[in-house]
Amino acid sequence: MDNLKLDRSNKWDQFFVELQSQGRYAFTFEEVCNHFKSSKKTLLQGLYRYKTKKQIAQIRKGFYVIIPPNYSNQGMLPPYLFIDDLMKSLSKPYYVALLSAAALYGAAHQQPMEYFVIAKTPAPRSINNKKLKISFFSKNSWEQDDIVQKTTDVGYLNVSSPELTALDLLAYVDKIGMNRTVTLLQELVQAMKATTLYRTAKRYPNTPVIQRLGYILDKTLSEEKLSNPLLKILNKRNISPVLLIAQKEKQGELDETWKVIKNIEIESDL
Asked: Which of 60, 108, 236, 249 has its CA 20 to 30 A from that of 17?
């Protein structure tokens, strides 16, 4: 009996080694079924055994990652090493966004604990447990030009360009907080180009976001080189006054250039 168990363990170990030799850490239950040709019950028991030994972790139903020794203390693999595989297994177009994208451009003091991903509507359910927090937001569409492919140890990631990241930060400012957003923008501007920002913002459907970003770049960060292209876009659109942040006080001073009502004081966290 012990020999049989040993034989089974060896087969599992071999399977994990094979995956890693291909530069992969992630696998699906479907792959396991095709590889082992055993009953589902037996295979689930095998996976459970490795989960209790903390050698693999289940990310969501039917999707697993191998935990190499250098990550055994965390008991989890960093999302950038499996997010592309996860989204492919769900057949979902996606990009790494917001704070997680900003961090890849050097605009975060510490790696955010939460991982942010924008996916094609409807977005997958967010993952939130002791070891892993991935927040999924949904969008109907985006332009492929605004997505950058960044290489990782296992392949690549789709990441929003610095310019799309800046616009998205303002679109989801209620989830992130204004002061934190301004702090990120302060560092993200170093990676942004005026011509690219013009092209990206021109096709960004949310006009109030362009107004708010323009206002912050111009009035808070004194980055006229980046705010001017946004003004050009707004001059061709019908714009109404918008609050700097939607859920706060409705009162404030109206900025005539951007038609933004300054209803909060901005303080950068830097």
From this structure: 60
Specify the domain boundaries for CATH 1.10.10.10 within the chain.
2-71
Q: Are 64 and 15 in contact (CB under 8 A)?
A: no
The verdict on pTM exceeding 0.90 is: yes
pLDDT in tens, 168-188: 999 999 988 999 999 999 999
Q: Which pair of tokens denotes residue 229?
A: 């292209």
Measure the CA–CA gap between 245 and 252, rounded to whole angstroms.
11
**What CATH number does the domain located at 2-71 have?**
1.10.10.10
H or E element at residue 163: helix 162-171
* Strand 133-139 with 115-120, pairing: parallel
Burial of 5 (0-12, 13-18, 19+ CB in 10 A): exposed
Q: For domain 79-262, which architecture applies?
A: 2-Layer Sandwich (3.30)
Q: How far apart are CA 260 and CA 234, in angstroms?
A: 12
Provide the pairing of β-strand 242-243 with 133-139.
Answer: unpaired
The encoded tokens of residue 256 equal 């005539």
- CATH 3.30.460 positions along the chain are 79-262
- How many secondary structure helices (H) and strands (E) does the chain include? 11, 12
Yes or no: say if 194 and 186 are a contact pair by the CB < 8 Å rule: no
Q: Which two tokens stand for residue 87?
A: 């989204």
* Complete edge-to-edge strand list for the sheet that includes strand 94-96: 127-128, 133-139, 115-120, 94-96, 155-160, 147-152
Residue 55 — pLDDT band, cuts 50, 70, 90?
very high
Residue 3 has pLDDT above 50, yes or no: no
Q: Which amino acid is at 244?
A: L
User: Which residue is associated with the tokens 């404030």?
Assistant: 252
Residue among 134, 128, 200, 126 at smallest CA distance from 170? 200
Task: Please give the mean pLDDT across all residues of the chain.
Answer: 92
